[in-house]
Amino acid sequence: MRGPPSPCLVIEDDTEAASYLVKALGEAGHVADHAADGESGYGMAAEGGYDVLVVDRMLPKRDGLSVIASLRAEGNTTPVLILSALGQVDDRVTGLRAGGDDYLPKPYAFSELLARVEVLARRTTPAEAQTVYQVGDLELDRLARMVKRNEQPIILQPREFRLLEYLMKYAGTVVTRTMLLENVWDYHFDPQTNVIDVHISRLRAKIDKEFDTPLLHTVRGAGYVLRADG
């Protein structure tokens, strides 16, 4: 289950690569426009209306970093994924400091690009005014800060509540460790600890252990998903 379609702008001068990317994003359920140079890309991006910008770093008329820096200077906060054949650490740092939100070296796997685009799109999609989440017989009330399963109250620590709230918000979707670190712990780096594993284990013990049907599943090599269908 994916989120709603996201309007994206691909700023890429390689016609073949851009055509493939626009087509693939469309097949994945998103809407993608294309700009073939930095100047036209800047103009389209400045008009707004996009959830994500996918920007090649080396562009004719105006380079990608210049486009991003100008947009940021004008208060445009649309998330930007930078694509570049320049993939060294210093190159990525330069791109992020110029205002990029993520950086993907070429060549890339489309599945990874799609995942990154969708993560960035969530930052600009207005949050639903939903106060109660339900997955199977598990219910979470955000306002009352209460959780119950099969009408039995479940006591969670604040971080466990936040973790479950995030998993329920994206129920049915695989949530990666990076997504959890950024949205539950506010880490924008991997601290190389087992903090996620510990909290997932504690949460699973509270919401699954005493019940017949497990809801919290580990997807090996990908992350975690909360779903009622097994």
Order of helices and strands: EHEHEHEHEHEEEEHHHEE
Mean pLDDT: 87
| Approximate shape | elongated
The CATH architecture of the largest domain can be given as 3-Layer(aba) Sandwich
Could you explain the architecture of this structure?
- The chain is α/β, with parallel strands linked by helices.
- The protein folds into two domains: 7-124, Response regulator (Rossmann fold, 3-Layer(aba) Sandwich); 132-226, Arc Repressor Mutant, subunit A (Orthogonal Bundle).
- The chain has helices at 15-27, 38-46, 64-73, 89-97, 110-124, 158-169, 177-183, 195-207; strands at 7-11, 31-35, 52-56, 80-84, 102-105, 132-135, 138-141, 146-149, 152-154, 216-219, 223-226.
- The strands form three sheets. Strands 2-1-3-4-5 form a five-stranded parallel sheet, with helices on both faces.
- α6 packs across α8.
- It is elongated.
Task: Describe the protein's topology.
Blueprint: E1 7-11, H1 15-27, E2 31-35, H2 38-46, E3 52-56, H3 64-73, E4 80-84, H4 89-97, E5 102-105, H5 110-124, E6 132-135, E7 138-141, E8 146-149, E9 152-154, H6 158-169, H7 177-183, H8 195-207, E10 216-219, E11 223-226
Parallel strand pairs: 1-2, 1-3, 3-4, 4-5
Antiparallel strand pairs: 6-7, 7-8, 8-9, 10-11
Helix pairs in contact: 2-3, 6-8
